[in-house]
Amino acid sequence: MLQIHNSLTNRKELFQPIVSGEIRLYVCGMTVYDYCHIGHARVMVVFDLVVRYLRHLGFKVIYVRNITDIDDKIIHRAAQNGETIGALTQRFTSAMQEDALALGVLPPDQEPRATDSIPLIQSMIEKLITSGYAYQAPNGDVYYDVSRFTHYGRLSGKQIADLRAGARVEVMEAKDDPLDFVLWKTAKPEEPAWDSPWGAGRPGWHIECSAMSTAALGNHFDIHGGGADLQFPHHENEIAQSEAATGEPFVNVWMHNGFVRVDDEKMSKSLGNFFTVREVLKHYSAEVLRFFIVASQYRSPLQYSNQNLDAARAALTRLYTALHGIPRAAPQASDFTTRFQAAMDDDFNTPEALAVCFDLAREINRARNEDAHHAAVLAGELRYLGGLLGLLQGDPDQFLHSTGTLSVGSALRDEDIETAIADRKAARKAKDFAASDRIRDELKRQGVVLEDRPGGTTTWRRE
RNA sequence: GGCUGAGUGGCAGAGUGGUCAUGCAGCAGCCUGCAAAGCUGUGGACGUCGGUUCGAUUCCGGCCUCAGCCUCCA
Length: 463
Fold this sequence. Notes:
Oligomer: single chain
Shape: elongated
Low-confidence stretches: none
Radius of gyration: 26 Å
Structural class: alpha/beta
Strand order of the largest sheet: 4-3-9-10
Number of helices: 16
Helix content: 40-55%
Largest sheet: 4 strands, parallel
């Protein structure tokens, strides 16, 4: 029985879909004005694996992840670069999709863009004004009246009074209350704008997610996810807007993933301590990066460091070594699958699920010389379970022959290695172990490790 | 100041009221020409002070430390 930690109640809860057998899921995606960093990668990987697992359980999942392609930062960055907003957002949307693909993140079922959703957004704002939840200020901006929404603060565990007391919100004359947030921003000259009943302008950030999610998934849907930094105010505001506009409950389960940290601090643009996905992929393979993310539970902080990526690579090498040299056989669900599912059912406990994979790998290693068929079936199971995490789908030989950490400099070509191995084989046959060891040492020096197998064959891997 | 969350062996990282996490690293044995890989065995931990309990790393309370949110942020 699947349990998910719900940020709304701050507890693990038994998951019950609204419509039996079907799950509607919305995740806040990227604002496309720069390359994705590892924090963005984590959101994509985490919810990808949530979707994969839910589908494995037999649910029909409708997964929507939006693209924010209009906001202040985009406008500023485009101006800075001297390019159009459309060119900028198109460029970084493509970059984001490339990064996702590299990380083995399956595309969402729908990927709506804010700028394609203006009519939806306007109609929601219209409803909020009509029902008295929003007002147009003298400066033309339209604001949401937070005091009208009685449940405001429920998701983030905040009291309106406390928020006011500790308000660090910029004082804006136009607002009735500093906590009110903007739904429609009047355009300044030079800024992109859409016509509206409230004058030319553009949507505020929060409203787009309310409009796009309810349009795609209905007024009331199952799961809404995103990074923990979106819990307040973004998600809080989404609830306020959506529930006020539709008169229905918005979302049953809120999921928030933890931050990626660098030196015990949150990785973020403002701190400048971020690593982009494409930067990291120059040094580590995408599967290693993905393993690194999966090796922590999604709500825990994730400590980014080369040391931890190296550890991820070593661990992944062990799994691929177990699969190496074993023919593919159809998987059978055994006790390992039961344990794996129990782990995943417990709020997607991927570290525990990986532990099961390692136990399975040991079992394969035990069986491989005793009972080849059994080993093959277990290997099939390991591959299947790994697939639920988006791992272990590659060819073991290929993984072991690649460095995993993509080393720079003069790497030996595969053919050179094969030639050296043939030379060494001849030397061994002639019992010239000094020559044999010389070849092995030289390869080792260049980062290639040899492994002599029973039967006289030699396999190799890069370290 | 308000509100969250966290402190586990050399490192990473799960979990549990009393018997094994898991991976890397260490040690010993088997295997090997020697290695590597693998297998077997093994040492090593639960921030701190109290409380509850036959028994707490696990429950409760205080304290210390760290991170996050309260402003754009995945």
